Amino acid sequence: MSFILKYKNLEEEREIPTSDYTIRDLLNELELSAQTMVSKQNGELVIEDTVINDGDEIHLVQIIYGG
Question: Residue 51 carries which DSSP code?
Answer without folding.
Answer: B
